[in-house]
Amino acid sequence: MLIRYKMPLRYILQAAMPDFLIVLTIASVVYFVEWKLGLLLMELSFSIPAFLGTAISILLSFKIGQSYDRWWEARKIWGAIVNDSRSLVMQLQAFVGIDNSQVKTIAYRQMAWCYVLGRSLRGLEPLKGMEVFLNADDRRHAAKQSNKPLAILQLNTLDLEQLKSMYGLTEYKQVQLDNTLVRLCASMGKAERIKSTVFPTKYRMFLHLSIYLFVICLTMATSALPIYFGLPLIMSIATIFFLLEGTAYNLQDPFENRPSDTPITAIARTIEINIRQLLQEEEQSIPTPLPIEEGFYLM
């Protein structure tokens, strides 16, 4: 599920609302103490929140850069999966024949592998809806193993060995097919590494607390301003910081079934369309790309 084009306002408001309310509470309390109760808070120089804001901006830039690197690595991995999935089917068709039934079985398993890998990374039921691609024996085999995508890849590897014996594939052709399977397995491992590697949680916690400290200092520095001017100013600046921090947090984990994810389901659908067309299936059996609604892929 990937946000495209213009980001929906509803999504922005939902992401910013918790921190927005906290900042509003902090700023309102300070202004209430200063204005209603007539108590004088410590007057802070604007240089203090300015220094904190600069430091936080540098930290945010670093965090966004690191988070985007993880997101972009995930996108490159799935780009490689697209290429290798197409290559596997085209190689089989060239080496064995387009109308071979075993080629079709392997092609359907490859389509299933893409969906199952995506669902596994997102923590969903991996084999749900795979009856279209996998027969009962294949589903039983995959269900017995904890790593469902690896089980499907194993079935394709075993079938390729049978094709080698049945059709006398040369060593060169066998090496080409093996290399494609190795790349698919490597891509799966890279995606699983990103999923299992936790971005340092203390970094976000300290950055979050630093933004709250900045809000408090900025509120105290602007407490002498009229509330109708100072409060919107504080809210605007703080909201920008929190939105940037939230963006970095969402990008750092590209397989969490959020709108900021790498669009792995949409990519898997594209792979399915391409493979079905390579198999020369009838047009009505070929699905359409996932639709986009309000800037989101629906799956």
SSE order and pairing:
Layout: H1 9-36, H2 47-95, H3 101-121, H4 136-143, H5 148-167, H6 171-196, H7 201-221, H8 227-251, H9 264-278, E1 292-293, E2 296-297
Antiparallel strand pairs: 1-2
Task: Provide a descriptive summary of the structure in words.
It is a single chain. The protein is an all-alpha fold. It has one domain (9-283). Helix content is 71%, strand content 1%. β1 and β2 form a beta hairpin. The longest helix is centred in the first third of the chain and has 49 residues, at 47-95. The radius of gyration is 26 Å and the shape is elongated.
Major sheet attributes: 2 strands, antiparallel
Mean pLDDT: 85
Outline the low-pLDDT stretches.
294-299
Broad shape = elongated
Whole-number total of structural domains: 1
* Contiguous helical run count: 9
From the N-terminal CA to the C-terminal CA, the straight-line distance is 6 Å
Taken as a percent bin, the fraction of beta residues is: under 5%
Features:
299 residues, disordered C terminus, two-stranded antiparallel ribbon, mainly alpha
Task: Offer a concise description of the structure.
The protein is an all-alpha fold. Helices cover 71% and strands 1% of the residues.
